Amino acid sequence: MAGGADFGDGGPDGGTAVVTRTKTITKRPNLYRVLLLNDDYTPMEFVIHVVESFFQKNREEATRIMLHVHHHGVGECGIYSYEVAETKVTQVMDFARKHQHPLQCVMEKK
Ligand code: TYC
Fold it and tell me: Compositional bias of type Gly residues: which residue ranges (predicted)?
C-alpha cells in the first residue's frame, strides 16, 4: 500500500527534488551627518533657534551644539538619510540667507 517518500514535485517518487535556501541580505542605509560651520557674524541666538527648529533639539541641547561649533569650528546637528539631510541643509541655508546671516550648513557622508 504505502510507498516511499513523496518529494512533492509532482514527479515520480525518488525523482528530482529542488531545495531552496533563503539568504538574508541586509544593506545598511547610507547616512549623512548634517554639520553647522562657525563664522564670526551669525548671532548665537540665531544659531540656537536654527538648531531648535530644524533639528528638533530642546534649548539646552541646541545651546550645547551652538557652543561646540563656536569653540571647535564645526559641529553635528543630526544624522539622516541623503534626502532628509539635503532638505535640512537647504532649509537652514535658505533661512540664514533670508535673515542675511552667513551661517553655513553642510552634509558629510558617515
Ligand atoms: N561665532 C558666532 C558668534 O560669536 C556664533 C556662531 C556659532 C556662529 C555657531 C555660527 O554655526 C555657528 N556670534
Answer: 1-14
pTM for this prediction: 0.81
Tell how many helices (H) and how many strands (E) occur in the chain. Answer: 3, 3
Q: Does the CB atom of residue 104 touch ligand 1 within 6 A?
A: no
> Does residue 62 line the site of ligand 1, with CB under 6 A?
no
Is 35's C-beta closer than 6 angstroms to any atom of ligand 1?
no
Say how many C-beta atoms besides its own lie within 10 A of residue 108's C-beta. Answer: 12
pLDDT, tens digit, 9 for 90 and up, residues 49-96: 999 999 999 999 999 999 999 999 999 999 999 999 999 999 999 999
CA of 72 to the centre of ligand 1 (A): 10
CA distance 79 to 60: 19
Share of the chain above pLDDT 90, in %: 79
Within 8 A by CB and 6+ apart from 110, the residues are 30, 31, 32, 33, 79
